[in-house]
Amino acid sequence: MSTARAVIYELDDDGADVLTPAQYAILGLLEHTPAHGYQLQRSFAPDGDLTGVLPLEQASLYGALKELANQGLIQGVEAREGLRPPKTVYQLTPDGRRLLASWLKRPVERLRQVRLDFLLKIYFTRKHGRRAVRSLVDAQVSACHEYLSQLEARAAEIDPDDFVYLVIESRTSAARSTLDWLREYRRRL
Amino acid sequence: MSTARAVIYELDDDGADVLTPAQYAILGLLEHTPAHGYQLQRSFAPDGDLTGVLPLEQASLYGALKELANQGLIQGVEAREGLRPPKTVYQLTPDGRRLLASWLKRPVERLRQVRLDFLLKIYFTRKHGRRAVRSLVDAQVSACHEYLSQLEARAAEIDPDDFVYLVIESRTSAARSTLDWLREYRRRL
DNA sequence: AGAGCCATGTAAGAGGTTACATGATTAG
DNA sequence: CTAATCATGTAACCTCTTACATGGCTCT
User: Fold this and answer.
1) Could you tell me where the DSSP H helices lie in chain B?
2) Contact B49 A164 (CB under 8 A)
């Protein structure tokens, strides 16, 4: 309990991710429909929606569920059907719901997260309607734009023959094309 | 010894990476000048060339050196200066040299490796002259091009309203811009 | 009767990070 | 004399992955 509250405070402070992408994904999947481990696993399986975005082994999934329950973000209830081994059906707690909501609103910080965490956020935000998606994309565009400015400022200070320049340049080009892609996506929304 | 040979065979078979990027980087640094751990550390330190490309903790560095020595890819000789604690100066073995050369020639497989492993290869290949760099970049352009074709083929089979389509599209755009960057770099060589 | 699905977990190992431990030399 | 630098390592911990263990149910 108190651990979960501490988590929320941290979030208010610096807005950093306190869970792994997989853990947020689980919260997202539980937002509208409670489920047990095996059901969740299907979302990450070869023909599930999240394949390709986020591979998640079965062992990691059950580990994540236990961890989320420990932190008071989800709550499990045992359900029995006949003589089968009991399954634990999980649902979000208020804390979990808050944490998910704050994660969904926040754009990702690093460029490489755009192709993973950001797409994940889009996936769950879609269920909140187009306006929510637009606002997330806008926030991400701003974040990428700022990142790009920082890179360009750094590049200006470096000798173009230096290896470091090549590295920065590579990142700059990646940031620009990510920005282009985001804007194009935004345009179509 | 026999371990190292097995490694070489594996390489000939499927051309997969058998070492971590950090380990290859160490081989690369040792190619022309033998060095001890503390010297190598400087290359990864805040003002070293490889900062930003490959962060490497000191504990990991010494761990990697031990592992490379175990595999017979580098060989260490103890050196003493006065009463100071002895330092171990490492140099490449013939096996290590072969493994490095084959890694340097090979383009990276995954898109996300372009911004790390590939730049690393460029860094070391530069010391072999412009022709070597050109040939590496050409190989990488081909690899990316093939990857892009595969993505486009997959995208054609998917319903554009599906979330998976968005994922593939994101990758496609990343692949295209990587390819653009590579070609632009190649043009300037 | 056997294959495959439902459903959950443990165990072992690899790899990486943080922190600590050691101790001499050099610069200010 | 004190701080920084030289130089190497160990120990505890965390996470992730692979593999195995369990056992009932459903369909053919």
Assistant:
1) 2-14, 21-30, 37-44, 58-70, 94-105, 119-125, 130-156, 163-188
2) yes
pTM to 2 decimals? 0.89
Q: Check: CB of residue A112 under 8 Å from CB of residue A119.
A: no
Q: Does at least one atom of strand D sit less than 7 Å from the CB of B84?
A: yes
Which residues have a Cβ under 8 Å from the Cβ of A63 and sit 6 or more positions away? none
In this predicted model, what pLDDT tens digit does every residue of A51-102 receive, in sequence order?
888 989 999 999 999 999 999 999 999 888 777 778 999 999 999 999 999 9
CA of A148 to C1' of D18 (A): 40
End-to-end distance of chain B based on CA atoms, in angstroms? 40
- From the candidate CATH numbers 3.10.450.60, 3.30.390.50, 1.10.10.10, 3.90.1300.10, the one assigned to the domain spanning B1-110: 1.10.10.10
Which tokens is A185 given? Answer: 């996506």
